Each structure stands twice: as C-alpha cells, then as structure tokens.
Amino acid sequence: MHREYRVESLPASVFKVGGEILDHLTELGYEDKDLFNIRLIVDELCSNAVIHGNGSDPEKMLTIRLEADSRKARIAVEDEGEGFDYTAVQDPRDDHLLRRPHGRGLFLIRTFADEVEFRDPGNCITITYIRGKHEKQKVIGLHSWILNDVVVFEVLDRTTPEIAESLLREAGQKLSEGLLLIIVDLRRCREAESEFVSALSRLNRDLRDRGGRLAVCQKKVAPVFRSDAKIGDPALEIVEDLDDALRRLGQRK
Predict the structure, then answer these.
(1) Which of 137, 170, 193 is the last residue of a domain?
(2) Coil/strand/helix, residue 151
(3) What is the separation of C-alpha 186 from the centre of its chain, rounded to a whole number of angstroms?
(4) pTM for the predicted model, two decimal places
(5) Are 12 and 74 in the same domain?
(6) Residues lower than pLDDT 50 in the chain
(7) DSSP character string of 51-67
(8) Tell me, what's the pLDDT at 99?
C-alpha cells in the first residue's frame, strides 16, 4: 500500500491524514496496540513539522507518505522548513530538562518506532514500525536510528549481556541491508560490562571485514573508556560527541 498526502500546516488537516493512515492500517490487520503507538508517532511527527519546521505558516505544506503491508509500516513526514541539527537535540531526561514542558517529541518517536531515519538538512523524518513487535517488547535500554546512511545505536543506561546480544543482532540486520557505518552512543552509560566490550570488538571486526567502520561515542566527564584505551583488534575509534563520530565516518566536515 502506497499513499501520499500534501496538506496545509493546519492541525485539522494533519489530524485528518492521521485518521486516514490508521484506517488503512486497520484494513491491513494492525491491532489497537499498534494503532495507538502509530497514532502517537504520527501526531508527534506532524506537530514538530508544523510548529518547528513550517513555523505554523498555513501557506507552507507538509508531505506525508505511507508505505505499508501486513508486516510493517514506513511513514515519512517532510516540511518546507530549513531543517535542524538532529545531532544536537537534548535528552529530555537530563536533570536540567525534566521540568521543561516541551522537547519530548523526538524522544517519544524514537521510543515507539522501530527505526527512525533523518536526512539532511533535517526537514524529513521517516519511521519504520513493525507490527506486533511491541507485544514482545524491544530490549529496554537500546534505541537505534539513522542519520543519513549512518546507523546510531544509543545505549540508555547499563551495558548488560542482553543489550550486547541485541546490539549484535540488530547491527547484523543493518549490515545485511548494506549499512556499513555504525555509531554506538554510550554517553548515558556509566560503565561497559565485559560482554558488551566483546560485542563491540566483534562488531568492529565484522564492519572492517566488509569495508565499513564503527565509532564509539562517550561523554567527556567520567567516560566509559580512557581516551588512550586500545580496545580490540583493530582498535575501536572512541570519540567524545556525536558530531565528532560523524566526522570520523566521513559524514560531517
């Protein structure tokens, strides 16, 4: 199923499209739990595009695309704004942001979608949602998203063996799709357990064997790894922020 909509930057217009998307997915057999999650994602995508992308200007348009079958749905929302630096978005769970009444949209989108893809200059976001997967629940603590052709895996707290296993499984899927540039973001981690370090080393070797590259991003204060650490063979590339990781992989100047 393929559908494309061009609508004004008006709440009523985008709300109507959201309802039509749910109707199409209902016809494909999506159940209430999936429809609730997808509605939340679409509402957040459109709200961000209308308010932040098009500046609530009704003369500017949104393009909303749906590609779906009975197994998964891909939804893209594109605005006519100048885009934004998606690598600089702050985490709403940080202590100094907890009381802020806004800024949670992208976090919710990443939480409920199975894949989030950003394209420069940042005025189009595409999500993939896999039907029924959320009944089994994704591994808590590992998010993945795409910046241009770079896959970013964000570890949210501890690097448990379950997280290590999930990282290798999901990264292997990306490799099979031809995505050979990967960043593992450890900026919210306090330490790296041995199973996870082994998983990183294995992933690094697999990527190098296929002509790809891996960069590990960590915080500057109390980092997971020492700046002079030599981990794995070949050694992991360890950097201090996401922008630096993108530069190392040739995606930023």
Answers:
(1) 137
(2) strand
(3) 15
(4) 0.71
(5) yes
(6) 101, 136-137
(7) IIISTT-TTSEEEEEEE
(8) 55
